[in-house]
Amino acid sequence: MKRAALLLSLLSCTHAGPPGKVQPAPARPPPADPLVAARLLSQETHALLRAEGELLWKRWTTGAGPLPASALAEHPRLSEHDSAQIVAAAAARAPSRALTLLAHQLATLAVSRDAAAEIEALERARAQLMFALPGEPRADSGERDLDRLLTEEANPQKRAAIALAEAKAAQPLVALALARDAAAEKAIGALGIGSWAALEERELDMPVSELVALAEQTLTATEAAAAKAVAGAASRNLGVTTDRLRRADLPRLLRSALADGEFLAGRAWPAATAVFAAIGADPPPSLHVDAEPSPSKGARPLALLVDPPTDVRLSLRPAGGFEEQRATLHEGARALGGALTQTERWELAQLGDGSASEGAALLFADLTGEPEWLRAQSALRGEPLDDLVHTQAARLLLSARRAAAMVLFEVKRRDAARTAEAPAAIYRGLLQRATFAVLTDEDAGRWALEADAWIRSAPLLEGAVLEAQLHRALGPKWWQDKSSGEKLRKVWSGGRSLTAAEAARALGLAALDPTALAALAEERLAYQAPDPAPPAPKPDYKYMQPDKRRRRRHKK
After folding, report:
1. Can you list the domains of the chain with their CATH numbers?
2. Which of 135, 163, 270, 286 could make an SS bond with 248 (beta carbons 3.0 to 4.6 A apart)?
3. Can you give the three-state secondary structure of 495-527, one letter per residue?
4. Per-residue pLDDT tens for 337-357?
């Protein structure tokens, strides 16, 4: 449309005036200084992110209000090609991490606008995906229910049937994912500011080749420890050997429901703040905590960095249980890190992949796998404590290995043939390698559910490796040491722009090293509780009525 309008304007200019005489084109205004234009675009982008944060907070805490994405309608200029190109030019003239991240942010907005139809079609199909449980006539279960269903189902045949139903329901998404990828690739080409890999490298602040190498190193370094951890968890929690492990079994493999009774409702946040206080990093007054048990709130904890460090919020809905404690530690650390951010520009606080802050958050979440912390927080002793610690070690490794597999999947599928079969084969091979579980043809065909336009699993991989190195650098019982807070402040002060590799170097480490992850897991797997489990309480039969009827005496 723009080209057509320009052509019409040129034609009107050439045909106006005396015949045979071409009128000169009107003088164009001088090009704006890209640094000045970038400053204005930075201010508007900052306003957009604050508006999106407000909308997300309202929907999460009340269940009402417009979607956060609707805020972009008030800032249409930010998704235009010129905006991304201007900031890229400004970054080339005056190189800075802040401008590089801003250019990446605007580029992703432009890609999302150009490929909006295909992106929305895939996301809508993902959100609306429904499948029927075995024996049920109607498809009433959604993708969000899958992990819970597989975790709670004790029967392996029923678990397999549930996973199969979900995988079959996901098959129509393959065509939509391929269309989304093609549209996104075309949009990136139209921007003229780099390839998909180049855009990724701007956010990651590292070559994609180095990220791929880290993923491969993680899978190799943790192979032996993960095999041991998965074998133990499979025997303990499923009663099967590793060779019989299937994708449908993975959620139940890591179940922690037996520890739920030790973590009561209302105690998760006090336990987290006690850790923060012990390391000398008390949450500042700028951190807003909403802990009202409203049924309309999102069920899981959520840290929302609306405008760090001045506007950081944490939503909690106390329900109790082991998983709530873990999530509260994770999100509480994310919120604390946002409130302790110290950067010169807002871009450095809010933009970037957040891999360093994710590593710090995982460090706190992994306290739920730390034997000494568990002993202090619960009555778990003996074999039940051993089982929980060993299961959490398996979780630690499988989470990192799965993230590594998904990093490789996103890179490798872009080099493969653009068919439905090629990504499925890559997905199947990588996940089987990462999890030791067998994937069926139907399991492989669900790759479209997890395929991203960008490498969203990169921060999880880098954060997992950094967490293990932080654990080693801070020392045993780091959660009781004031010096831990001083070191973690170095990580938090950099905001989301600080990468995991930069955080490692700030702590005196040479680079991200996956062998630390394997060593931490091996240490946990070798743990044996020094005391036996407490005796099970004897049942109280006093409340029961006697089962014998009174016999009446008969008079002789």
Report:
1. 34-129+170-194 (no CATH), 208-525 (1.10.1370.30)
2. 163
3. HHHCCHHHHHHHCCCCCCCCHHHHHHHHHHHCC
4. 999 999 999 999 999 999 999
